[in-house]
């Protein structure tokens, strides 16, 4: 077992979409990273009734400088919401949303989402803006990747991830999505990754 302390989140370099073409991204994974539309809806379209979304854990924590900068806030703490998306049994996507205290004060219902999909919930509201995606390779020793492994992700050297910032009537929250090896398994006789391209 790896007992090394995970590298802090702030040590990861997140790159804008225009830099993604310069990086060595698996060709079958790229469509999921750059795909438009709600990820939950894309997974539902491929996985059908095998798709599930479950809240793994929700806890308060400190916001380091990297998160404060990405969110555009000075809050010292916030709520961390970890969610698992599965296509049958395998964990395909691990998502973590960071909600600073100021956002929760303005919209306390965000802390009560349970198993509801955040993106779908926000898409039904007015006054919601979303930033362009940023991308990063998270080695298995990085804190967010370690959380995905704890949640049941298949062991790998690391994971490709993307993040974007939502603003709900000006109140920010940050969504991270980690794309896991199980995205390559068959779903209903069709490869999840191949279907993502269509």
Describe this structure in words.
- The protein is an alpha+beta fold.
- The protein has a single domain, classed as Chorismate lyase (3-Layer(aba) Sandwich), CATH 3.40.1410.10.
- It contains 8 helices and 10 strands.
- The strands form 2 sheets. Strands 1, 2, 3, 4, 5, 6, 7 and 8 form an 8-stranded antiparallel β-sheet that branches.
- A hairpin with a 2-residue loop joins strand 9 and strand 10.
- It is globular and about 40 Å long.
- It starts with 14 loop residues before the first strand and ends with a helix.
Quick overview of this protein structure:
This protein is α+β, with helices and mostly antiparallel strands. Helices cover 26% and strands 34% of the residues. The strands form 2 sheets. Strands 1, 2, 3, 4, 5, 6, 7 and 8 form an 8-stranded antiparallel β-sheet that branches.
- In the CATH hierarchy, the architecture is 3-Layer(aba) Sandwich
The profile of the biggest β sheet is: 8 strands, antiparallel
Number of strand segments: 10
Number of domains: 1
Contiguous uncertain segments of 5+ residues: 1-8, 186-198
Instruction: Say which CATH homologous superfamily is assigned.
Output: Chorismate lyase-like
The geometry reads as: globular
The third-level CATH topology is Chorismate lyase
Helix count, DSSP H or I runs of 4 or more residues = 8
- What is the helical fraction, as a range of percent? 25-40%
Oligomer: single chain
Indicate the structural class.
alpha+beta
Q: Topology as H/E string?
A: EHHHEHEEHHEEHEEEEH
Mean pLDDT: 85
């Amino acid at each position: 077992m790896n007992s090394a302390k995970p590298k802090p989140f702030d040590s990861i370099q997140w790159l804008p979409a225009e830099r993604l073409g310069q990086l060595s991204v698996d060709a079958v994974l790229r469509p999921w990273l750059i795909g438009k539309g709600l990820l939950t809806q894309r997974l539902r379209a491929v996985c059908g009734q095998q798709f599930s979304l479950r809240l793994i854990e929700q806890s308060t924590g400190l916001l380091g400088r990297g998160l404060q900068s990405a969110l555009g806030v000075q809050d010292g703490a916030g709520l961390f919401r970890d969610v698992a998306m599965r296509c049958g049994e395998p964990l395909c996507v691990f998502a973590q949303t960071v909600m600073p205290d100021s956002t929760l004060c303005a919209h306390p219902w965000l802390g009560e989402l349970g198993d509801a999909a955040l993106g779908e919930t926000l898409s039904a509201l007015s006054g919601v803006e979303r930033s362009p995606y940023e991308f990063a390779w998270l080695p298995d020793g990085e804190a967010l990747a370690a959380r995905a492994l704890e949640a049941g992700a298949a062991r790998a050297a690391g994971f490709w991830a993307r993040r974007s910032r939502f603003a709900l009537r000006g109140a920010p929250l940050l969504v991270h999505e980690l794309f896991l090896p199980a995205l390559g398994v068959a779903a209903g006789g069709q490869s999840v990754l191949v279907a993502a391209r269509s």
